[in-house]
């Protein structure tokens, strides 16, 4: 029956000497800069690209990053990965891009992701488009 031992630096060294493994000097550790890495994201390419661009630049600078569907996806990612800075700049960008064409979808996203100021602003745009603007001014 095999024996189970607790693996500590002392027992590891004694087992190496006992069984003849590792007769030479310890192997150097791999350089993390040279180790290949992959980022697997179950998102569409434009969304993954804009998210990686945000991670590198810490801002939204490309026109692709300011498209409404991409902003919606970035808002979702900011909540999933708990990135408050991304959440703030996406909300700010959504405020800037708000118009009567996207007001309903922006209102929906603002409601789901608890952006009260954006929710109020988009509701004002929706009400203004439908001729009920007098209630909000």
Automatic annotation (TrEMBL):
<dbReference type="GO" id="GO:0005829">
    <property type="term" value="C:cytosol"/>
</dbReference>
<protein>
    <submittedName>
        <fullName>Uncharacterized protein</fullName>
    </submittedName>
</protein>
<dbReference type="InterPro" id="IPR011333">
    <property type="entry name" value="SKP1/BTB/POZ_sf"/>
</dbReference>
<dbReference type="GO" id="GO:0005739">
    <property type="term" value="C:mitochondrion"/>
</dbReference>
<dbReference type="GO" id="GO:0045454">
    <property type="term" value="P:cell redox homeostasis"/>
</dbReference>
